[in-house]
Known about the structure:
Number of domains of chain B: 2
Radius of gyration of chain B: 24 Å
Helix content of chain A: 55-70%
Strand content of chain B: under 5%
Radius of gyration of chain A: 16 Å
Number of strands of chain B: 0
Largest interface: A-B, 27 and 31 residues
Number of helices of chain A: 5
Number of domains of chain A: 1
Strand content of chain A: 15-25%
Largest sheet of chain B: none
Largest sheet of chain A: 3 strands, antiparallel
Oligomer: heterodimer
Shape of chain B: elongated
Structural class of chain B: mainly alpha
Number of strands of chain A: 3
Distance between the termini of chain A: 30 Å
Shape of chain A: elongated
Order of helices and strands of chain B: HHHHHHH
Distance between the termini of chain B: 29 Å
CATH class of chain A: Mainly Alpha
CATH architecture of chain A: Orthogonal Bundle
Amino acid sequence: MKADAIRGHLDGLVLAVLEGRPLHGYGVVQALHVRSGGALDVPTGTVYPALHRLERSGLISAKEHTVAGRRRRVYQLTASGRRALNLERSSWQEFATVITAMIQQAPS
Amino acid sequence: MIEDFIATLGRSLPGPRRPRQRLLAEAQAGLADAVQTYLAAGMDTSAATAHALADFGTVSQVAAHFQAELGIVRTRRTAALTVVLWPLLTLFWNVTWELNPYPTWQVPSVPFVLAVAASALTLAAFLHATAALVVTGRYGRGRSWAGMQHDVRLLGRTGTGAFAATALMLPAVDPSTLLWPPTTLTILAAVTVAITAIATGRRRPGRPPR
């Protein structure tokens, strides 16, 4: 799946992978890769500004931890982030339902 | 190789130093982790580094995303400065206007009318900056607010510039007003803030990714 297709949805995807457990930056990159089965083809460099943006918006929070001997910012969802993720899920399901109904082959 | 890439990316990013360094350090750590992952999978260092950099994206692919975020950080700083300084400058200006024992000109006059106009402009800058702080923070839902960023910087520049110009008018009308220290301090503060706002605003802001 190309970057164009997920434009505008990266924040929601990052929130989704942080729902299960806190992760550091590269952990988020790996989780996105694993959850999409390797189909998500976005430059991983765009994840770091997304994390900064989500933290500024109060949707995730960060704590400094030592991971594998290195200092890392580890991110986790806030209560606002959980609500935003639920909203994103609802609106995506609504969107997908409408598009699926419109795009599927008409019965002959 | 990774250090060179991060240095090249850093050179393409204008903006506040500390947030930029934090973002770049995190990206560099992520690249180092990616290299380790590829090494663990059996690649040699050269191939692992090349794969990690290919996954990360080129400078032209990712710089706009970093710039957009740093642009918002800079706008928030300008907005915070405007929100803090506007009431202080207004207070000092009113004290100077009301209590200065030296002015010989009458109110209303041209400087008075211009001061009122400048106050309206700086009030607009203050209100806009307050709104910008709200929507680019916890209530903004992560949107880029590109138009508002431009407006905040423009209003910050024109508002403080008008304020400084009006402050300078006081000694222009009657130089003896400078003999009162609060007037001199207010004018110096207004001019300093205006120069800072204009110099900050002239730096090229980050363009948000489409």
